[in-house]
Design a protein that fits this description.
Strand content: 15-25%
Order of helices and strands: EEEEEHHH
Shape: elongated
Number of helices: 3
Number of strands: 5
Structural class: alpha+beta
Radius of gyration: 21 Å
Largest sheet: 3 strands, antiparallel
Low-confidence stretches: 4-12
Helix content: 10-25%
Distance between the termini: 31 Å
Mean pLDDT: 80
């Protein structure tokens, strides 16, 4: 997970110390790397040896390390003169279409949806989680797969 390692070799009269900076772990299996798709504005995974790319992390990936690596090293950007927008949608039973990729039949009330959103807002403003990470798992919009990006 990034940082430094101290290697110490003890010889009879001469202790030798060396510091090696370790790169931040991507969380991917050996041979895989994270790349950024400019057309989709999303990360994807590439193995140059196999000449294989995929949108989903390869088997054997460490999800937490991968999420941290992507968050640290890849930030979506807007072309010059444009802005970006993202959201987290919480539907309720009175929504125009009370269904989503998360639930076929949404039964929560409008007030319950507002309470859920208020909780998310508190977590985001408190620095506990980012909008993009929360949207990925909690948004009722299909933009969840793009981290809430519209």
């Amino acid at each position: 997970t990034g940082g430094s390692v101290l290697a110490v070799s003890q010889m009879p009269l001469f202790p030798i110390c060396a510091y090696f900076d370790l790169p931040q772990s991507t969380g991917l299996p050996l041979g895989w790397e994270v790349r950024w798709s400019n057309s989709k504005n999303l990360p994807y995974f590439f193995n140059p040896t196999l000449k294989e790319s995929k949108w989903e992390p390869p088997n054997g990936s460490d999800a937490d390390a991968l999420r941290a690596y992507i968050h640290t090293n890849f930030q979506p950007s807007a072309p010059a003169g444009k802005i970006r927008a993202a959201h987290l949608l919480v539907k309720h039973r009175e929504s125009r279409r009370p269904a989503s990729w998360r639930s076929e039949n949404i039964t929560r009330t409008k007030e319950e949806a507002r309470e859920i959103l208020a909780g998310y807002e508190k977590r985001i403003k408190g620095g506990e989680v980012g909008l993009a990470d929360l949207a990925t798992t909690e948004s009722d919009c299909n933009s969840a797969r793009k981290r809430g990006d519209l």
